[in-house]
Amino acid sequence: MKNKKLIKPVLIVSGIVVGMILILFLSTSVIPQALITLTRASSAGEVVTSNSYLIGQKILAKADGVDKCVVNVFLLDKDGKGVSGKTAVLAGMDNIQAVGKGLSDNSGMITFEMTSAVEKNYSITATSQGALLPQTIIVTFKK
Description:
Elements: H1 2-39, E1 53-58, E2 60-62, E3 69-74, E4 89-91, E5 96-98, E6 109-114, E7 120-128, E8 131-132, E9 137-142
Parallel strand pairs: 2-9
Antiparallel strand pairs: 1-3, 3-6, 4-7, 5-6, 7-8, 7-9
């Protein structure tokens, strides 16, 4: 009779231990490897403008010539993976500066900052390797 009472708790504890080992294995081996695969830059290195895009990080700023709007460009390949080491050019206003070296990182991202002392909405476009990205983004400077 005593053995039957001990079997159920032992099975529960064993199941918990096996589950914890499985979680430990997944969190230290499988999941990090999957994330590395998903975020790895493209080895092909060819930017496909129809897959690339602009996104506003901060699209409203004071029109004081100091406060900055921030726009990110993502340069992607045919599979939607980031292409590193490429450049892009933004157009639509003066005072646009690439942050850092102006080259895309492993996710294909280049960050741009812009300032204006004029209160206005600016329509910003991007090109990479001479090809226009399909999106346009509006940045706004207000007094």
